[in-house]
């Protein structure tokens, strides 16, 4: 029996009719909703390439059944920033060359955005490395990733203070 | 003008600049499209069933159950597989391996496709493949080097012949005052690019259109064309981005060919993406090696002999052998050199080139053996290498095209603080009480060129379009090649539109061997110079041009203007010349390749020195590489930001090789039991806390007109040995088996 | 993945009513969905607990016990500052497990219910008594050091992969369950079962029983000042333990008044030995003393084919965890939780 559900997907309400409860959030995004920025690297929660935010928190979309998400807010890389108005994490990844092939990058960026919202101590690169260790980068861009997350966290903290002031 | 002639060294306004990636915004916003991101209308999903045994035959499959699963459209097995026009064993296209495409019911390795299921959804295709539940007639598999006798190699990895000898090896052994005879083993490793191999195939008549990652457009087109009996020009490949290749995505692999076959059979587009587990089998790997090194030195610590025997795996149906012993032949000034390779045929997928093939495995063994001999000789490891510094290529005596290795040693050692290293192992502890060790290794990697073509078109508005089918797998082709093109045309980078990643463009050659920037860049450079030359002819013939009459002169373009070389007083704007000539775009073409005589005249390598600090828990044996300093000389660096990233990446692969990567085969079934990212470890972010790269200046007037070598692979080389040596220095333990893990530190 | 029916009950009662043979409970899904993809779990009905109310809070009870709702995420529990302060080794163990993404999705009950990562259990083509009773155990004579050295049986040598369960066992946590027959409590020590002849029975839960909460009993926070989890692994992060240990000491006047020690990754359940703790009582902390305790804890360990190193490692891991606990709980969670590479502890909690 098809499941009808409503998601808030990248800020917009979206009705989804799910014909098969086996569909994961990752495959829903990629194969049915044409949001292919989120990548499949292992499909088992072991690489982080599929990371998205669900209700503001980073999760592996490959291990999330879409059917469980009625009413949830989902943010993917397509909803984080735009080419014209990059999110600070996106901008910092470019600046610090925090990627090479780019395939793990959407997941890295969503993971970093989630990590920063968890109240990351941006002054401690070791905490960033630990916090980003659920995202494998086979190209080995970790040096730039760590610098990018550090800078984005600082920038966002500063912006937050300005906003509060 | 042939690009093989030496051009004046010219560092244009773009080359040498740390430009951020031009594809950066596409990659951080999710806009960059990879093969599996495509879903043409009417598309079916394909999933193949992998063999669960390594050797034997498939005796039955439950095709009825698979076909009955809702959504399944077709099940293809050897019994009903549509005909393939080409021979799966055909190897006429360069770098091709024999492929398994359901040509029979024989199982040659675990993970080999034994059937393909097409369905309306990915979920249905996946479950359909599972329901096939193949039954087998099993034979005893051979999956480790101990499982079969070695034999002479039938083919080899790319490079030198299987066996080479320079000088009198017996005399070298006899002359040694000190020697070591040690055997190192390295594990089977799988590329595991983050993007699993994937393809979206569409047929229109006898024209084939593909979204598929490829490191070599023209070769891939030729390969698919051959399998399907169509002209290569009927094959279109789109691949603006690869999610990593590392040597595994150069040519069509069996599962991808199957998807194309299925698409033709059902008359609908078909998408197939490998699962992570399926990445351990049909798409190549770095074969396990067992390397015996017998090296000796005289009383002064000068090498009399490097005698390197390598036994490596290959498959039962093809011949690639990891050319590990080659790595010891071009580096140190030994009196005599010998490399020998033997193969062991195993029931595994055919190994193939994986980032620094030969060099990574060979250097791991060589650099550790060098330290063993240095220690036996009572000489500091760095000093030992300096004493054996080769001023010309060992064996051949050819001059190096350039070699700033000494600077790499010195700058790297200085940055690392090597001079403070106590010689005795097991004597350094940090504030936490962790054993601390310092080790080093030399890096060497050839600087090859393949062949590429490019086209440059200057427009009357002062912008240019440059084109080549270059592949960007993360090395930064979108950026670095555009920088080269901009300089060749004398234009600012912003004025140059760079098109790549499509097979309809001029053949960009192979993104591999660390030779893509040199080769495709060489083609772009030549194409730009061709435009400049033509423009010079137009200007010289144009009475209104300040360059009128300069017909015999050499022209150079800079800052959007054309100059007569050596005469700064005469110039004309590029756009103005074209406008006056009617405004039609002006197109030039170029080729990147190295002439055979140039290749023979010099030994051409990138060099480096890697220094490693490791921490080892004295009781619990856990290892962490706390610091890596790599100093590399690789000719002209087009983009230091991207080159640094490449070198970091290579060094992290070195950490991975030294401490992590190992496919674990169950010898009873032949299956790899850790074929996932939880079991087959590669480093995570927390594994690489301290990385530094020094790019040592090096001018190379011989390697190619741009002076470019390559940085894609050399970062691994030297790093593995440096880590092994640092572990020895930290703990006093010499581990001769890679990867080195906790259990090796205990007992 | 096999097709299944999907139901979303709103209450525990509805959930229990929805259960039948072939049904599974779905919490965060990080373990179950993976096993379903592998074909290891093939449920007919998936009962999503995500809509069930009342299982997402952490409450301090009248007697000081702390009750953790079954659906509290692993991450939320670590972010509960009051909880982490009272039970630091639980927080440290949670933070050393999996990844940030997985901890956000995974629930505490799901953590208890996760299956072994034994490669032969996960490989549907291999013989596994745990998955398929009577099929045999291909892990024996297979590859990989991730097998049990304590409490194994000829039928199964798998280990429990959880970090979280190790300090829970050390602290005498209690599992609250509801089932068709009503509610009951299961002591953590009895929750996971050793394989014996029935390795397919992994926990003490009866069919149709559902975990509704975990409880840390009153007094379990008495170890907060001297409490550590240590996890040795083949990567600096995002790896299962090769060996781990949770150690807690309650100190009085420089002497050990009460001690807790549990080992992970050595058996099908967290390994806790009363005699090992008893030997510490009344003593002043000392590496030799801790070595004696750890040796007792590992008594009876079987090295199997080639696992003498693992026994040695587990013992030394226990010793180190006790030494770290004796030195005092760090005031702040280390940047690398439970790691041997955590910076040397600075400021300490003084409970």
From TrEMBL, chain A:
Record domain 2Fe-2S ferredoxin-type: where: 3-80
Keywords: 2Fe-2S, Iron, Iron-sulfur, Metal-binding, Oxidoreductase
Pfam families in UniProt: Fer2 (PF00111), Fer2_2 (PF01799)
Keyword Iron part of the UniProt annotation: yes
UniProt-listed PROSITE patterns: 2FE2S_FER_1, 2FE2S_FER_2
Entry-linked InterPro entries: 2Fe-2S-bd, 2Fe-2S-bd_dom_sf, 2Fe-2S_ferredoxin-like_sf, 2Fe-2S_ferredoxin-type, 2Fe2S_fd_BS, Aldehyde_Oxdr_Iron-Sulfur, Beta-grasp_dom_sf
Gene Ontology MF terms in the entry: 2 iron, 2 sulfur cluster binding; metal ion binding; oxidoreductase activity, acting on the aldehyde or oxo group of donors
Keyword Amino-acid biosynthesis: no
Name of the featured protein: (2Fe-2S)-binding protein
Species assigned in the record: Primorskyibacter flagellatus
UniProtKB/TrEMBL annotation, chain B:
Cited Gene3D superfamilies: Aldehyde oxidase/xanthine dehydrogenase, a/b hammerhead, Aldehyde oxidase/xanthine dehydrogenase, molybdopterin binding domain
Region (Disordered): 1-21
Alphabetized Pfam families for the sequence: Ald_Xan_dh_C (PF01315), MoCoBD_1 (PF02738), MoCoBD_2 (PF20256)
SMART domains named in the record: Ald_Xan_dh_C
Segment forming the signal sequence: none
Domain Aldehyde oxidase/xanthine dehydrogenase a/b hammerhead: 29-140
InterPro entries xref list: Ald_Oxase/Xan_DH_a/b, Ald_Oxase/Xan_DH_a/b_sf, Ald_Oxase/xanthine_DH-like, AldOxase/xan_DH_MoCoBD1, AldOxase/xan_DH_MoCoBD2, AldOxase/xan_DH_Mopterin-bd_sf
An example Gene Ontology molecular-function term: iron ion binding
The organism's place on the tree of life at top rank: Bacteria
Alphabetical list of PANTHER family matching this protein: DEHYDROGENASE, XANTHINE DEHYDROGENASE
Descriptive protein name: Dehydrogenase
Annotated organism of origin: Primorskyibacter flagellatus
Taxonomic lineage: Bacteria, Pseudomonadati, Pseudomonadota, Alphaproteobacteria, Rhodobacterales
UniProtKB/TrEMBL annotation, chain C:
UniProt name for this protein: FAD-binding molybdopterin dehydrogenase
Keyword Zinc included in the entry's annotation: no
Keywords linked to the UniProt accession: FAD, Flavoprotein
Keyword Flavoprotein among record annotations: yes
Source species: Primorskyibacter flagellatus
InterPro entries: CO_DH_flav_C, CO_DH_flav_C_dom_sf, Diverse_Substr_Oxidored, FAD-bd_PCMH, FAD-bd_PCMH-like_sf, FAD-bd_PCMH_sub1, FAD-bd_PCMH_sub2, Mopterin_DH_FAD-bd
Domain of life: Bacteria
Signal peptide (UniProt feature, chain positions): none
Domain called FAD-binding PCMH-type: residue spans: 1-221
GO molecular function, one term: oxidoreductase activity
